[in-house]
Design goal:
Structural class: alpha+beta
Oligomer: single chain
Strand order of the largest sheet: 1-4-2-3
Largest sheet: 4 strands, mixed
CATH architecture: Alpha-Beta Complex
Order of helices and strands: HHEHHEEHE
Helix content: 25-40%
Mean pLDDT: 87
Number of helices: 5
Strand content: 15-25%
Distance between the termini: 61 Å
Low-confidence stretches: 129-141
CATH class: Alpha Beta
Number of domains: 1
């Protein structure tokens, strides 16, 4: 029987993850919004979600072991090297989660165990969207 790889994580994202997230986010948002999002990511508390849930919410295709970055991360995990947590952003419309940094790490973990908890920081794309708000009904009750 094959040995099960234990997935280890750093306690917080690495410093270089934030500029990487900003670079990716600059393709989606203007410079001011990117700076705001990255600032909020720095301040956000750590949380975690299942790999399968992040994958579904991201609406992205899953990369397999044929991808060099996924293979590199799998080798790190097999060697017991902890990975950096993900940086996530909820889209303005609430329809998906943007993986600002950590897409290849998420795919690597998913290959090993789709039920694995992945530590991350998550913020809304707009400050006013940091937490879901209840929509008031205009209907008379």
């Amino acid at each position: 029987m094959a040995k099960k790889t234990e997935i280890q994580w750093l306690k917080k994202p690495e410093d270089h993850d934030y500029p990487a997230a900003a670079s990716y986010l600059s393709l989606l948002y203007d410079e001011i919004r990117v700076k705001t999002i990255v600032s909020e990511l720095h301040k956000a508390p750590m949380t975690s979600f299942k790999a399968k849930d992040i994958f579904r919410a991201s609406l992205l295709s899953l990369l397999g072991v044929s991808n060099s970055h996924v293979r590199k991360n799998l080798k790190k995990l097999e060697a017991g090297t902890p990975l950096s947590p993900l940086l996530l952003v909820r889209s303005d419309d609430g329809g998906k989660v943007v993986i600002a940094d950590g897409y290849h790490r998420m795919c690597s973990v998913y290959v090993l165990n789709e039920d694995a908890d992945i530590p991350c920081k998550i913020v809304g794309a707009s400050p006013e969207r940091q937490s879901p708000k209840r929509i008031k009904s205009s209907r008379k009750e």
